[in-house]
Amino acid sequence: MEQGRVECVYWFEDGSWHRAPYPENLHDDGLDCGIGHLTSRDHAVEAICALFEFDEDCEGASEACERFFEHAERGTVTERVVRSFADEVFRIQTEHELLWPKLPVARSEAELASMTALVRWG
Question: Highest taxon of the source (predicted)?
Answer without folding.
Answer: Bacteria
